[in-house]
Amino acid sequence: SVLPKIITIDGPAGAGKTTVARMLAQKLKYAILESGSIYRTFTWLLLSKKRELLPLRNEAKILEVLKEEIPKLDIKADSQGLKVSYQGTDLTQELREPEVEAHVSEVAALPSVRKLANEILQRIAENRPIVAEGRDMGSVVFPKTKAKFFLTADPRIRAERRYLEWQAKGLVASKEEVLSKIKERDHKDSSRTEAPLTVPEGAIVIDTTTLSPEEVVNRILEALKSSHP
Ligand code: CDP
Ligand code: CDP
């Protein structure tokens, strides 16, 4: 059987995209392309270099800063995830910080910023088979692939999952706070005009509310087998 070289997984925060994409990528020996990490990287760059540009005011200036800083990044995709470093310093921890998370949706709403991100993502996908994970992988960035999935789950469950992750990292936040931040990001991602979060045409929708990551991976593998026997 010949699997498509690009498998897309889209959906809201906490649906399980990263976890499931990672498990799937390891099984299939694909690399994983966490597109959110590109937007997180851009947001981190702006927060650390030009804090005064957030909240967003000047799109042209933001683009100028990003274009200047992007050559200093090293971005690599493998079956563990996307590794980003800046002038030799690994950014994995920084990209998950709540401050980055609080601003990423406004940065990702800018059309010119999305164009930059998409160029980087499509270039990485030229070299190896990938599981691409994010908000617009199946709808905008890789619309031609035949393997599209959309994960979703009840917002309370998604917030609960994120709450447990934050707790494990020693971050202090109440469940209600996490839920309201998730809902706010959902709203921003779904209501923007450029590449809003949406179920891509031809995508298989999986509600993960009551499923384990293994069960989700198995459903995806079954769907891939039955459509590419
Ligand atoms: O893991 P989680 O869903 O919390 O975050 P993420 O996938 O790293 O994405 C962080 C943010 O980046 C999202 O809330 C979106 O605003 C943006 N994003 C996007 O606009 N398009 C994508 N393809 C991926 C992420
Ligand atoms: O990437 P996204 O924001 O969609 O989700 P994630 O970063 O993979 O986080 C999902 C969290 O929920 C992880 O801690 C998983 O262990 C857990 N989980 C899951 O991913 N899938 C399920 N079906 C159930 C739980």
UniProtKB/TrEMBL annotation:
CDD domains: CMPK
Family label: Belongs to the cytidylate kinase family. Type 1 subfamily.
Keywords assigned by UniProt, alphabetized: ATP-binding, Cytoplasm, Kinase, Nucleotide-binding, Transferase
Catalytic activity: dCMP + ATP = dCDP + ADP; CMP + ATP = CDP + ADP
Annotated protein name in UniProt: Cytidylate kinase
Tree of life domain: Bacteria
Organism listed in the record: Thermosulfurimonas dismutans
Primary localisation category: cytoplasm
Enzyme nomenclature, EC number: 2.7.4.25
InterPro entries: Cytidylate_kin, Cytidylate_kinase_dom, P-loop_NTPase
Top-level EC class: transferase
Ranges for domain Cytidylate kinase: 7-225
Location of the protein in the cell: Cytoplasm
